[in-house]
Request: fold
Amino acid sequence: MTRVAIKPDLLRWARERARMDTLDLEARFPKLADWERREISPTLKQLEAYARATHVPVGYLFLPKPPDEPLPIPDFRTAGRAVPRPSPNLLDTIYACQERQAWYREFAQVNGQAALGFVGSVTTRTAPVEAAARLRTALRFSVDERRDCRTWTEALRLFLDQADALGVLVMVSGVVLNNNRRRLDPEEFRGFALADELAPLVFINGGDSKAAQMFTLAHELAHVWLRISALSDAGPASTPTNATELWCNQVAAELLVPLNVFRGELIADEPLAESLNRHARRFKVSTLVILRRLLDAGRMSRQEFFRAYEEEVARIASITQGSGGNFYRTTVARVSRRFARALIESTLEGRTLYRDAFRMLGIARTETFNEFGRSLNFNL
Reply:
């Protein structure tokens, strides 16, 4: 039996990088403590299994020392708190989205698609009200456009569809690819934007509440209009010190609930619960966004806002969530309809290898791929 001499530092690095409990790993690898003490070395098969368990490329375990893994995009998460080493789930999600974006960019170039004029069309010197108006017009996401939506969750679906129709690849997932055992932590990040004039991409952490996702989508779209890629954790209650994040938050709030319209809808001395529900129905946004606008309108102090926000988050979390739903609809949401249709079309025409399409979709079998294509109205 051939054993592989591996430096204990690399084994510990892989465990810590994966944020896995030592006891959980030792249940799968009973000799882990012995490996880390160099009392015995793992076999190559054991090492490969350990690499899979900790989501690390096995080649990394043969390096002379643990590698640095900087985030591949700027980190605009909340300043003032310690941002830990990025998890493998976050890194792998960014890498997967970068691969999809690069593929779609080439697809767009081959098909002669024009650059999208809205990407980079504003700067942080643009007034948030003006920038929000531009986004609202381009996306057709005005209050009037949302009028026919029955609920704000239906309005969120409309928002996603309109961004996709405009040319933005909007991907919403709470897991890495289709691996439900690798869940994305909204405490680590809420979303990110990969700005590009041909293939702008926005990723929304589907592990976050739907109430938070609408604001995240608006925030990340503001990044696209700026043409600034970044990782974010901004939400309606956040107060970023980063000037770009602060601007994007202001644009997101104004896009969803125009303050001049909102002020005209306010009723003096209306109980908070009634105000939240009435405005959520009127503007088709979550009650969390309405709380943010009540603060912006001067109707509550910051102390009152944060107390009410925490209570509302708890109330929303207590509501039973639905099931994961249809696999094919979920996959479309995870990769975006625009990207999925382009990839299937290219694969069926022989311009993209099936193995590459499977990897980017997180699909393992030809039958699943074909059924996915049929769900998007391809004749297979």
The first helix runs from residue 8 to 17.
